[in-house]
Amino acid sequence: MSFPQDFRLISYLSTLEHAVRFPLSSSYPESMNIDTLFELAGIEHRQPFMQAMLDYPPLRGTPELLEAIAGTYDNVDTGQIISFAGADEAIYASFHALLDTGDHAIVITPNYQSLESVPLSRCDVTGVALEAENGWALDVEKVRAALRPNTKVLVINFPHNPTGALISHQQLDELVSMCRERGVWIFSDEVYRLTEFNPADRLPQLADIYERGISLNVTSKAYGLPGLRIGWVACQDHAWLLKLERMKQYLSICNSIPGEMLTTLALNARAPILDRVMQRSRANLQSLTDFLARYPQTFELTLPKAGVLAFARYKGAEGAEAFATRLVEETGVMVIPSVTYASELTLVAEDFLRIGFGRANLEEALGVFDRWLDQRSFK
C-alpha cells in the first residue's frame, strides 16, 4: 500500500471542526488546567516546575518520568520503558522497529487507523473483525486461524476503540499462550486501561505478563491530559528496545521538559485524577444511554465496558455519515461516523456513530441534540 494514506478520522475532524460547538467527537475525558493538576498532585510541586530549566530531557525520558511510568506496572522497571511524543509516534516507531518485508501481522478491526496502516506499509497484514452482531466480542479461534509461519506480531486494543469492548482474562491468556508457542509478539494498545466500569474486567498489561509483549499507553485517554503529548512503550526485551530507541533518534529525539514534568506529577497523582474521570464517565454514560433510549427507532447501542466512547448503530435511511454531517452543520454537535474507521483488511459497517461522553457539558450537548431530533420527528 502507498504510505502515508489519508488519516480518515483526522481528516473528518479537520474538515468540519469550524462548525463544532459540542465535541461529542472527543475520544478523551474532560481535561483540566495546570492549577487543578497542581491541586491534585500537591501545591508544593508548583515552584520546582516554574524554576525548571528548559533543556532537552534524556531520549527515553527523565529519570523521574520513567520512575512514575514504571509505577503503573507490576513487573516493568525504568530500563524497560521509552517515552514518546504521544501515542502515534510510539506506534510508528514500534512497527518500524518490529516489522520487515516478509513478515506478517494480525490486526483487530475496527481500529485506530495507524495500528493498521503502519503495519500495512511494512508487510502483509490480516484483519480479524469484531462484529456488532456478536456484541463486539473477539473470537480467539479466528486469531488462531489467521496465524502463518511468518506471523511476527498480533496487534490488539482492549479496552477497544471505538466500541469500549473488552476480552476476558481467559481470552488474553489464550492469546499469550498461542503467541508464546510460536514466538509471536503482541503489541497491545492499552490507552483506555483504568477506565473499566467494572474493575474486575481490568486486564493485566502485556509488558507485565509476556516477554514479547509491547504495552502502549499515553496521558490523553484515561487521564484526560492530551495536551501533555506524552506517550510511552514498555517491553521486557532489551534488544528490541534498543532498536526502538534508534527509531526515536530519527523522530522527536526527546519530549519537552514541561510535558515530562507535568506527566510525572499526573502519574504520581493518578488515583484522584482517575476518580475524577470515572465519576463523570459513569454519570455521563447513564445520561447518554437514557438519551439514546428515547429514540429506539433511530439508535441501538451495545454498552461499552470501558472508556468514554459509545459506538451506536444509526438506523436512519440517509446513513450515518450524512446524519453526522448534517447534525454538526446545523447544531454544532459533532459525532463521528464509522466510515472514518474503514479498514483495508475487513468490512467495517458504515451505519455506526462514535459518540464521546467524557466531557463536562454532555447534558447541554444532548439537550441541543434532543431538540434537533424532535424538530425532525425522529421519535
Give a description of the structure.
The chain folds into two domains: about 10-35 and about 270-370, Alpha-Beta Complex (Aspartate Aminotransferase, domain 1), CATH 3.90.1150.10; about 55-270, Aspartate Aminotransferase, domain 2 (3-Layer(aba) Sandwich), CATH 3.40.640. It has 14 helices and eleven strands. It has helices spanning about 10-15, 35-40, 45-50, 65-70, 85-100, 115-120, 140-145, 170-180, 205-210, 240-250, 255-270, 270-295, 320-330, 360-375; strands at about 80-85, 105-110, 125-130, 150-155, 185-190, 215-220, 230-235, 300, 310-315, 335, 350-355. The protein has a seven-stranded mixed β-sheet, with helices on both faces. Strands 8-9-11-10 form a four-stranded antiparallel β-sheet. Helix 2 packs across helix 11, helix 4 runs parallel beside helix 11 (about 255-270) and helix 5 packs parallel to helix 6 (about 115-120). The chain is globular.
CATH class of the largest domain: Alpha Beta
Number of H- or I-type helical stretches:
14
Poorly predicted regions are none
| Percent helix range | 25-40%
| SS-based class | alpha/beta
CATH superfamily of the largest domain: Type I PLP-dependent aspartate aminotransferase-like (Major domain)
Using the CA coordinates, give the radius of gyration: 21 Å
- Which geometry do the CA atoms define? globular
User: What fraction of the residues are assigned to beta strands by DSSP?
Assistant: 5-15%
Mean pLDDT: 97
Question: Quaternary status of these chains?
Answer: single chain
Gap between N and C termini: 44 Å
- Largest sheet geometry: 7 strands, mixed
In the CATH hierarchy, the architecture of the largest domain is: 3-Layer(aba) Sandwich
